[in-house]
Write a structure and sequence with these properties.
The complex is a heterodimer of chains A (337) and B (505). Chain A contains 15 helices and 11 strands. With 337 residues, chain A is an alpha/beta fold. Chain A has a 5-stranded parallel sheet. In chain A, strands 3-4 form a two-stranded antiparallel ribbon. Chain A has a two-stranded antiparallel sheet with strand order 6-7. The relative contact order of chain A is 0.14. With 505 residues, chain B is an all-alpha fold. The longest helix of chain B is centred in the N-terminal third of the chain and has 37 residues. The chains are: A alpha/beta (337), B mainly alpha (505). The interface between A and B is medium-sized, with 34 and 36 residues.
Chain lengths: 337, 505
């Protein structure tokens, strides 16, 4: 009996890896390089979370998300946020339409938020009111327009982008809302060899047409597979200690954190560590999460949940530095880093 | 989510697997202990550093005690005992600390985690050890246990020899042994034996050195002392003779220094000597009363030592000018302005090549130098003093209630004008702004008086109905009439007026 269940788990793991590799390979036809970012996006997709992409314009963020929508055969929508955008612009609104017989009635027209893969470009340029409408959809998987509540179909994944420069006139996301993103991925410049590939693909006459390699129900099934991966108690304790290490004043926080951190990660951070660690364990062909998996996803999961205080900002300390210090301070089980 | 729980494995399999894992864990626990000792060692070494100061401090105290109590005593055993006293407590303390940290067997999960890390099994063994003891397992847990079983053989046979890195101590910890060495050296510097005997021996040495006279040859080599400075006796003058006659002994007079000395000290004016004095003779004996009825010098105000630096640019200009006059004899180009105080041409720049500025060696900073006057004179004429500048005269007409507002208006007395221009140079007389005399009020005089409205009684007026109009009506717009009708109308009204005029008359 145990062998049957173990075989089932192996099949699920094998299926997961196959679909993951297919989607990644399909994305690789459109995207050049950015392997870490692609892995992060797919990890968030299969873990059931959302992603915050930060990078300067022109690095392929929109292309990545659009290609993802094509590869997984899910409705994709793009929202370019502007300061004058209202919640109704993204949620939808009631419009007066003509009916047969000459009458009129109000009909709800859905906004771009009603999709499976949503690209929210420059989310920090939207007003807090509009941001809250988006964040309600992210957290509750539903939108509320007047008295109408619309559930959003799963899988639902929001990929928001943020420009690290040109912050004037923007509305930075508050910490409580940043916490809703599973990961924050920093999109960097491509390497020199990748530049040549990009130019060949984008300035030539041929266009790359992506095909769907999976669909929504399959992604939902794989999400169940991810959640089935068990976490040993020492690993869970280690994840908890890592999160506590980011909180100033806690028993596991080094003095560096107490001096330079204003606010640490919340329990959502521990959830994110475990979910992302499970995906990583499956990709590695293992049936359980290890401390190494948790430590490997610590930076993308925790970097946007930690707030550096003024003292740390004055010293040029980034959140990545804080997370690294915590990783150095909190040893993995067995005493090994 | 569907329930993936499955029944546990067979007890036999479970026991065997558990035993295998425990065996591997025991191998790992030994390495883990070693790692713990290595991790604890730097901390123990650092914490026990203060003990290195105990023995040297005790040694120093012992030596000081002997010294102050005048007792004789030494430390037997020498260096070896001292070093042993220093290092033994320290070593014992370090050993105790490290053994304390290594006490207690590490738990199996930590040991298995160490084995996982060493063999790069990514936590398979520790996960299996955790899942195997659970009441219910999921398919993934079973798969994890099965996965770990395949690696048990590798873990059983592999040599686990983890190198445990020893941590570093803080740099401040090394201050303790340095302090201990310093204290030890101080203790060694304290003289052995009683203090009194030491003092006696040092006194004997000092007295012995004094009793030995220097050799003759050495005396000859010694430099001779400087001869005393001879003091000159001032030559007697008739005034001095008179003073003697007054009965004052000469030796009571203060000894005057020579002119050369005084000159170097700057106590005389140039061209004078100490013997020079007024005809009254009172200047020579300063402070001493005379019977000549002349005021003593002491009653006069003490003269300020003359400033060798020229007070003003004028002085500096005049002196070199005079020299140049004497040397060349040419006066062209100078005119009357040469040497004049009010020479507008004379300036610092013009005199720059003639007179070098004097030294400030003898400058007395306490002197009151009127820099403003000097500047004014160099620029020619009285210059406006901006410091106490008053606001300009108001040019308002001065219309105000009760002449408030302070408008002085044009004319009227005003303060004295500043002298400007060459006119002031020529005359050198202040030109007043007005001529004193009768004030001419002018042809017009504007006064304004404020009159408050006063209530006034008036007769009441009874309203009456309007009477019919007797006179012709008011002007009406001219009608568009032809000329004949217009003439007729005009004649009519003229006749009517003629008739009414007759009636009024």
């Amino acid at each position: 009996m145990a062998k049957k269940t173990a075989a089932k788990a192996k099949d699920e793991l094998q299926a997961f890896r196959e679909i993951y590799d297919k989607v990644k390979a399909e994305l690789g036809r459109a995207m050049v390089g950015q392997d870490d970012v692609v892995d992060g996006v797919l990890t968030a997709l299969f873990a059931g979370g959302h992603v915050l992409l930060e990078g300067v314009p022109g690095l392929g963020k929109t292309l990545l998300v659009r290609s993802l929508g094509q590869a997984v055969d899910l409705p994709f929508s793009r929202i370019q946020f502007t300061p004058d955008m209202m919640p109704a612009d993204i949620q939808g609104t009631n419009v007066l339409v003509d009916t047969e017989g000459g009458g009129h009635e109000l009909q709800f027209q859905q906004g771009p938020l009603v999709a499976n893969i949503v690209l929210a470009d420059e989310i920090n340029r939207a007003t807090p009111k509009t941001q809250s409408a988006l964040l309600e959809a992210m957290q509750e998987r539903q939108i509320t327009v007047g008295r109408r509540t619309l559930p959003l179909s799963e899988p639902y994944c929001v990929l928001a982008t943020q420009n690290p420069v040109e912050q004037e006139g923007t509305y930075p996301l508050p910490e409580a809302q940043l916490d809703r993103f599973l990961m924050k991925l920093v999109v960097g410049y491509p390497k020199e060899a990748e530049y040549h590939q990009i130019l060949e693909r984008t300035t030539g006459s041929s266009e790359v047409a992506l095909k769907a390699v999976t669909n929504g129900p399959e992604i939902l099934r794989l999400r169940d597979t991810v959640r089935s991966v068990p976490v040993p108690e020492p690993v869970q304790t280690h994840a908890v200690r890592l999160v506590m290490g980011t909180q100033p004043g806690s028993a596991w926080a080094p003095s560096f954190v107490s001096e330079n951190v204003l606010l640490g990660a919340s329990p959502r951070g521990a959830q994110g560590l475990l979910l992302a660690g499970k995906v990583r364990a499956l990709l590695d062909g293992r049936f359980s999460v290890s401390a190494g998996d948790v430590r490997a996803v610590a930076k993308p999961v925790l970097r946007h949940r930690v707030i550096v205080n003024f003292h740390g900002q004055a010293d040029g300390i980034s959140t990545d530095d804080v997370v690294q210090r915590v990783l150095d301070h909190v040893k993995a089980p067995g005493g090994e880093a | 989510m569907a329930d993936h729980s499955t029944p546990r494995r067979e007890p036999t399999e479970r026991r065997l697997l558990r035993a295998e894992l425990d065996r591997v864990a025991r191998r790992g626990s030994w390495q883990l202990r070693k790692r713990r000792v290595h991790a604890a060692l730097p901390g123990a070494l650092e914490r026990c550093m203060p003990l290195l100061l105990v023995a040297p401090a005790g040694f120093l105290l012992f030596r000081l005690l002997l010294w102050f109590s005048d007792a004789e005593g030494t430390v037997t055993g020498g260096w070896y005992l001292l070093l042993l006293a220093m290092l033994l407590p320290y070593g014992l303390a370090v050993l105790f600390e490290t053994l304390r940290c290594s006490l207690g067997a590490p738990d199996a999960s930590s040991s298995l985690a160490l084995v996982d890390t060493q063999l790069q099994l990514e936590g398979r063994l520790s996960a299996a050890a955790d899942f195997i003891d659970r009441a219910e397992t999921t398919p993934f847990m079973e798969a994890a246990i099965e996965d770990a079983t395949t690696h048990l053989a590798q873990a059983r046979d592999a040599v686990i020899s983890a190198k445990a890195p020893i941590g570093d101590m803080s740099s401040q910890a090394w201050l303790w042994p340095v302090a201990g060495a310093i204290v030890l050296v101080l203790g060694l510097l304290v003289p052995a034996g009683a203090r009194s005997s030491a003092l006696a021996s040092s006194a004997t040495v000092a007295s012995a050195s004094q009793a030995i006279p220097p050799k003759t040859s050495e005396r000859a080599d010694l430099p001779e002392p400087a001869p005393p400075v001879p003091t000159e006796v001032p030559t007697e003058t008739p005034k001095a003779t008179q003073r003697k006659a007054s009965g004052r002994p000469a030796q009571d007079r203060p000894a005057d220094t020579s002119d050369s000395v005084k000159k170097t000290q700057g106590k005389t004016k140039s061209g004078e000597s100490t013997d020079a004095g007024s005809s009254s003779g009172g200047s020579q004996a300063k402070g001493d009363p005379t019977d000549q009825g002349q005021p003593a010098a002491s009653n006069e105000k003490p003269r300020r030592p003359r400033n060798t630096k020229p007070k003003t640019l004028k002085d500096s200009v005049e002196t070199p000018r005079k020299e140049m006059k004497d040397s060349s004899g040419a006066t062209a180009g100078r005119g009357s302005a040469g040497g004049s105080n009010k020479n507008p041409v004379a300036s610092e720049w013009s005199s720059k090549d003639r007179v070098p500025p004097g030294d400030d060696d003898g400058a007395d900073e306490d002197e009151d130098v009127d820099d403003e006057n000097d500047a004014d004179e160099s620029r020619g004429g009285l210059q406006p003093n901006l410091r106490d500048r008053k606001p300009p005269t108001s040019r308002d007409l001065g219309i105000g209630f009760g002449n408030q507002g302070g408008g002085e208006g044009r004319g009227g007395p005003s303060e004295r004008k500043k002298s400007r221009g060459t006119a002031s140079l020529v005359l050198g007389v202040p030109v007043p702004d007005h001529v004193k005399g009768q004030i001419n009020p002018g042809t017009t005089k504007i006064t304004q008086e404020r009159v408050e409205p006063q209530p006034d009684e008036s007769r009441p007026f009874d309203a009456a109905p309007r009477q019919a109009r007797t006179l012709p009506g008011a002007h009406r717009d001219q009608l568009d009439l032809d000329p004949k009708a217009r003439d007729l109308l005009k004649a009519y009204f003229l006749e009517l007026r003629r008739r009414n005029t007759k009636t009024i008359d």
